[in-house]
Amino acid sequence: NCKVTKYEINDVQYEIKRITQKLKKFLENSHTVEFEEKLLKELYVFNNKNFPVPEYKYKVKRKEIDENKYGLEKEKEFLPFFNKLVRDYNIKLRQDNEDSFLGKWYTQHIRDEIQFVFDEIKKIKNTETKKIVSVILSRTIRSCRATTHADLATLVEPITTTYYCSKHGKMCKPLFSILKWWETYTKDTVKRLLQFDNLRKDVFHTCLKGDSRTIDIINGLNKTNPNFAKLVKEQKIKGIFSSPPYVGLIDYHEQHAYAYDLFGLERNDELEIGPLFKGQGREAKESYIQGISDVLINTKKYLVNDYDVFLVANDKYKMYPTIAENAGMKIVNQFKRPVLNRTEKDKGAYSEIIFHLRDSK
Ligand SMILES: C[S@@+](CC[C@H](N)C(=O)[O-])C[C@H]1O[C@@H](n2cnc3c(N)ncnc32)[C@H](O)[C@@H]1O
Questions:
Q1: Does the pLDDT of residue 168 top 80, yes or no?
Q2: If we measure between CA atoms, which residue out of 52, 120, 43 comes closest to residue 78?
Q3: What spacing in Å lies between the alpha carbon of 170 and ligand 1's midpoint?
Q4: pLDDT at res. 344
């Protein structure tokens, strides 16, 4: 809903400016900025010497350099310098309590900055402004997890030291401050809100939260916008465009664990269809087929007779024909869609299919 809500943009901009200034003041009082500048300078010299562009990557490609071995050697070579800087500037890397996601996946200073901004957000009076600025903080902290660049989408182990980065072919460092991402996302979000404001049409729109296998759409709409509920009941819904989860690829709750932790949201892990933790075995696939079929069956009562349903999926296991059949639908068309902009850019592009389904009668 945050993408389509109407905001008082001036108020949003005012609060962003206020918090950014306060965050900068907060940073002035710490050594982190100085520490990071010094570290970046040293890394720059070290990388130029040991990972010259583009020769280094050519050599790796031609197998003249064993990337794993060389990377590890260089990591070890740089580490004493990093450790000395940490001591000199008295930087605390890990947090004392690592039980929660926020405790484990953020360096101490980042965690302090997150809390600082969060406390500032609590002071915002306008409820809508407060919500959108919270979403900006959530986007920011997603980018600030203590992980390597190569493992951004699938967290492996928290990293708090400099490391050899196979994605960039040089030594990289974890983040020590949220400021850069906070500024990036505040600007980007305001830009998007203004852009959408120009495109906005005089229509109802909403996002209902719930399990799509069982959610009662009319009931949900009635709570926030009875006129919308009445329209849907009378006219029915013309179609669906959806990107459902795919079998055994992602644990969505885990991927956004930082937000559940920070905002104290209730988790519903067990309601996820096709989570990673269930894998891609026979049972997982059967439960996935059942799950998506149930979603489609649930939606049918809200749809017109000649509905169109579009589902985006990378159907490696050819489950969608069965799903369509279970739901009394038929696949009438398939469009190929290349996926180019992945979070983990080195993991290659792949293509997905957009299935176009209609009623089988
Ligand atoms: C491929 S993502 C699509 C994300 C979507 N396009 C968006 O922009 O938010 C699949 C989404 O389905 C959600 N999901 C999984 N099981 C669900 C269920 N039973 N009911 C509703 N949503 C579910 C996941 O949490 C995830 O957000």
A1: yes
A2: 43
A3: 35
A4: 55
